Amino acid sequence: DKKMNETLIIEEGLQKLNETENAVLLDVRSTEEYHEGHLEGSLNIPINRLPTISLPKETPIFVYCLSGARSKRAADFLNKIGYTATNIGGIAGYHGRLVL
Q1: What is the pTM of this model?
Q2: Which is deepest, 18, 63, 76, 85, by most CB within 10 Å?
């Protein structure tokens, strides 16, 4: 049985994101990493700035980073403060297109 906070393969995660209304794709890497290439349409809030997040609580959030470690911590934190966050893992193994 799949738990909500179980890491999805990033492609699966993006598929789910596209099927979820009003969902936000969140990149929790540093600003520098973000500018080196990120998933199209993603919002960048580095993990250390996550407490400043101001999205409405009902916004479904799909979180990624480079390896999946920071996004797991970020998703746990977001779920704790009342969001519905899913860790979709890291883009290290992602073969799709990144935007600069």
Answers
A1: 0.90
A2: 63
